[in-house]
User: Fold these one by one.
Assistant:
Number 1:
Amino acid sequence: MRVERVELVDFRNHPTMAVDLPAGVSVLVGANGVGKTNLLEAIGYLATLGSHRVGQDTSLVRAGTDAALIRAVAIREGRRVQVDVEIRPGSGVRGRVNGTTVPRARDVLGVVRATMFAPEDLGLVRGDPEERRRFLDLLATQRLPRYLGSRQDYDRVLRQRNTLLRSAGGRLPAAALATLDVWDEKLATAGAEIWAERLRLVAALTPLVTRAYQQLASRDDLVEATYVSSLGGSGELDPDPAKLGQALRERLLADRPREVERGITLSGPHRDDLALTLRALPARTHASHGEAWSLALALRLGAHWLLADEGEEPVLLLDDVFAELDQRRRGRVAEVASAAEQALVTAAAAEELPRGFQAVVFHVEPGTVEHRGAR
């Protein structure tokens, strides 16, 4: 698939902006802060209903305005489909497909497919577990749009359960214990769905990440990604929702005295991590800066290939990807981008691009994207 046209209204720093995009590679060139990344972020938002930079939608709406609009025309299986998303903080997100309002915002998922790499992705290797959980959840949403509903259900139940635990003040009367039993059941059901999909995802993704890293580094370094569960152990869980749900029920019951005392849920998908190793050593502490950057990019490329293997190839979004790479790795990335059906790449200056990199060049300013021809 590819995105043929993007229009933005009051999204980030763009009052209005529209651009027609060709197939193949497009390079967005402009000084820092003009809004190159914002265009990529908008396409990524259509694909996941989430931003790679912020967890709350408030920052996506231009200062002084009430709502932002992202509109795109995508070519899917030879047909044009228009998708609109209106972001209105405090009122939620509304979606339309071909002009028709959809019942739920998540019903627009799947119209646009995109994979995005950005400098913030170094946090996938160096950062806290929350960064890696979010990576898995956004990718899982693209593979299985209903996963977003499971994740939202889990977050809602978790908030309710934690509120009950905090209100206990270290002691729960009989009536509150009965209510906690209800929340345990709901949490186990929603958590099992999340666990099952994350486990299946990691199993499918890991060999592709290894392949991507070896292609970027030109070495046969072994990369491993292991799902580490708060239930204990690494990579040993059976991705059967019934078994996972039962395991969480048992753990919640065992944790109950400590949870009542501390006022927080101690086990569940919200406490998990994705352990990354390079040459059998923890990448977070042992990878060099260049290796960590390449591993983060490999995670995104592995995700891209996984989505392409399971359906139409996503749009490949590469934000400032060349800045931290040596010439050899820049060339490798250029090869990957050139092989994609559609790739959008940002750069502060055309000089950052590898020699011989064929692309259509656009110059970006706040509110404008000007076509500058091919290079």
Number 2:
Amino acid sequence: MRMTRMSVLAVLVLAAVVRADEPKKAEGEKHWGYTHDITPSKWGQVSPTCASGTHQSPIALSTKHVKAQTPEQALEFSWSKSTGELVDTGHSYQVNLKPGNFITYGGTRYDLAQFHFHSPSEHTVDGKAAPMEAHFVHKTADGKLGVVAVLLRQGSTASPFAPVLTALPASGETRTVEVDLPALLPADHKHFAYSGSLTTPPCSEEVLWIVRVAKDGVSKAAMDALSARYPKDARPVQALHERTVEIAP
């Protein structure tokens, strides 16, 4: 088929418009994801640690293969009602918090910086995943990370997560939210503890993990709102290798 000069010009203009609408990527940047771009099995292309690390997270937790936690590793929460900035990071919804909230584990203070969500849960317990998992990311004064994970189940009553999950912003927007942090913790103090990694690139290791399970959780409507934007943003479980998982009553 022959094309006129005007036809060729129209095609070139259309191609330029399409390219202008595509996301701009930095030169050499590799975009990781869960269902497209570089998926979890290929995250080693973004950071070698994701593929070669031996202390990776999440893991499959078992109530039968754990070690009792020693009193020296006591966990204490110093959380209060706080104001945060809710953002869409492009991988999840995240609430950035002002300084002031922290945990103490084994005598070490970890300051709370932010929390975000994964759907379904990244950790499993006795082979079962939960519909959602919240990660509360803490950091020590010298930069070590500690994450408190809460596995969330579907509940019928009003959830303390509702003020966040009912105010989800559009991409590029930021919203101020009031968060009752203590109310977000399960009443059951039992938790798992182990040494792992970030569950997203660069998958840095030597991260303290505290994992708790909520007996109830968030409403189906709130879960649907999250999954509408991120239907799957969970890394598969990783090999335990020689690590020990502790449990506290």
Number 3:
Amino acid sequence: MKLVVISHACVTPQNQEFFQRISEVAGWDVTIILPRQWKTDFNDRYAVHKLPGFKGEIIPVGVHLKGRVPLHFYHFGLFRAIRQARPDILYIHNESYALSTFQVMLYNFMFLRKTIGFYAAQNIVKTYLLPFRLIEKFNFRQADYCFPVTESAAVALRKKGFTGRIAVLPLGVTENHLRAPVRYVAKQPFVIGYVGRLVPEKGIDILLRSLALVKSAGWECRIIGDGRMKEALVRLSRALAIEDKTRFLGYVGHGEVSSHIAGFSVLILPSLTMPNWTEQFGRVIIEALAAGVPVIGTNSGEIPFLIRKLEGGIVIEEGDPQALASAIDRLIADPALAENFASQGQENVRRYFLEPKIAGDFVTELLGVMAAPGN
């Protein structure tokens, strides 16, 4: 069986590992087509690097609008690459309304007629402007299957009219993320950590305001990430008189994040629901619990469901600095509770979110699609 994956995310080598798992689980021949260069939100440019140990083929193709996830589209070399790969199954690692998804769907409709599907994380029912509304409708008609990362994303797909096969396949972590739970909470200082973009919807200003209300002493905050709010957040930390205990570490590469998380006593995800956005998954929660670090998160989007499923931390009301400060004080004052969250959360990550299991589910679902009448 030949699986061809089109994925901008696989420019980061660590994201190729999941598809290597699929090759190992199923014995399939996997080819990944990806951008020759990519650009992040932080103006960093990535060139293609193949993950050591990935046995499939990596085909880089030029793209327009590098870094624009829904808007980027490939040069004509994409079609040559797909044709040469001779796929039995196509998987587009992008949303239903994206231009790159439309490119591949249209080519498959016109020339290949192979089994094809896409990825989904969008958990809000949105009506897009033209031409994206028409693009999504076309892609829905063409796709045989979709792998949303959450149940709410699956519900949104059905509400918008997708009738193909749906299987919820969450984002996962590798064995390399797993560490024995360590009593970071018993150490000084107690390290309060955040990882993500510094943008309004992530609620980092609420985190800073909560730190000014924490009653316990002996803590420090490490903020990993970058974004347009950075300077305003630095000024806010100064105004709150917590500047000397708050470290802005900037952008950290994907492969280095887990080692930073392992140094936290608790991970905070203070996301805020916006009219056109809510937290779609919260993968950093899984990465923290895999490292034996408990979490505190708001009730925005998928965060509360993930924390409760994993039994790895505390859920608070979004936008409430006092509630967040109280939750932090609770963990500082009760190391045994924090240790229990870390241990139970890590065990549940091992049970539900390891990539070999998810890769096996991916393969099982695709075999089901292939066996369905008409394929």
